[in-house]
Fold this sequence. Notes:
- There is one protein chain.
- This protein has 14 helices and 21 strands.
- A hairpin with a 4-residue loop joins strand 11 and strand 12.
- It is α+β, with helices and mostly antiparallel strands.
- The strands form six sheets. It has a seven-stranded antiparallel beta sheet with strand order 16-14-1-2-19-20-21. The protein has a five-stranded antiparallel beta sheet with strand order 10-11-12-13-15. Strands 3-8-9 form a three-stranded antiparallel beta sheet.
Amino acid sequence: MNRTIAILASVAAAAVPALACTNFIAGKLATTDGSVLITYAADSHTLYGDLSHTPAAVHKDGAMRKVVEWDTGKTLGEIPQPRQTYNVVGNMNEYQVAIGETTWGGREELADTTGNSIIDYGSLIQIALERSKSAPEAIDVMTSLVAEYGYASEGESFTIADKNEVWVMDMIGKGAEKGAVWIAVRIPDDAICAHANEPRIRQVDLKDKKNVRYSKDMIEFARSRGYFSGKDSDFSFADAYCVHDAATRRSCDARAWAYMRKFAPGFDKYYSWISGESDEAMPLYVVPKKKVSLEDMMTCMRDHYEGTPLDMTQDVGAGPFHVPYRWRPMEYEVDGKKYCMERATATQQTGWSFVAQCRSWLPDPVGGLFWFGTDDTNTCVYMPLYCSLTEVPMQFTVGDLYNFDMNSNFWMNNWVANQAYARYDQMIPDIRKVQNSLEDKYRSSRAESDAALAALAEAGFDGQLTTVVNEQAAAIAKEATDSYRSLAEYLLVKFMDGNVKKQNDDGSFKRNAYGLPASPEWPGYDKKYYENIVKESGEHFLIK
């Protein structure tokens, strides 16, 4: 369903339960092309992969906006509309402002108990996008909203970016008191950063007004609640307002660590933090040894800790087909001891994700690219949508979580992914061929598209620009969805019944001399699997 303003007022299509999301960040001097890049995976077992759109509007005096809680669909209240609101596509607006989030909960007693707060974290994002032309302005909007109307959610980290800069803001409520305490830090232009369901802002220079902003009572409130008693200069928002244990470090901070270590090799030392062997917390950001590309960001969103001690393709849970997925629950108990499943960036329950590319050298309608993908980040296709989009492609509006639709991008991606979850190492090469082909095409064609659209923008042909943007999006969404429908059918045929059908050099399936299907290959299982059978069963299966 298309989450227009009317639908936002009646459903929770964008619900994102707590402890479920990942954000990666790269400043404009840390990227290969000079763009600001941020990512977001909206992970939830009940979230459908549709695309939201709120058109720009001029509002009459006295107009009100409903505030609907993203997680439940409950109407929390109403707030006055400003005179002008902006076009918003997903989590990006027409001025290239993009916002992501991850929920960390924090101290339970700080959840709102007033019953009067009406601004939840999801509405905070949407309203800020409707009203902001820059990241600093978005911070102003968000913090003034919770101050005036109260904050109705748990502890949250926000990534707030525009075409020139990117900020991370940690926020949590005040229990029985109205509003929230918060801190925002500007990530240096030459740095990368990440957060994944853990607050990451610790000691910072509170006198650096250019790069650090915070609520006036941030430290005072912590002192009054007994969360902090040291010098102001030693204050750590993350440690005052959230308790970090070994389980959350491994399931949450590990995702941030896995991203940053790829570009800053020295960051490997913080494995001891995420493994619970050291209390030396990893820093909020790091200057990478090599610059980050758009393709890199997409690849990082597909991470399962490959090449690290947490590699999900290699532990016993991967099984004979090296599957990097673990079904919930994430913790289990054996002989009175608690154990965990790894929680990587790429996960099966993602509803939708994005890579936002903000580019200062292009006109805003062209500079903002919202690379949108549905379902699992590992197997989805990231499709480029310009921030000036005004018509959501049909493939992002049909179906829902209870209604399978062959024209739905979300359902076709799920069809592909869920086949691969059973026999991952056999199927993923075929998936990568289609995925890479589409994404390579979309990335390589952007320069020509950007130039043509920029020319229209500079000539003042706004209507024609919008038409082209909408037509491009419709064609891309259809191509990607149709390609994955064909891919899903192909995987079903090729890998039916545990076999692998033989193929000719041109990809067609082999037949014998009489036109019948050739005998398939029987790949069986890996050696380790057979060894484990013998180890567990002894001579039970021995042929005597």
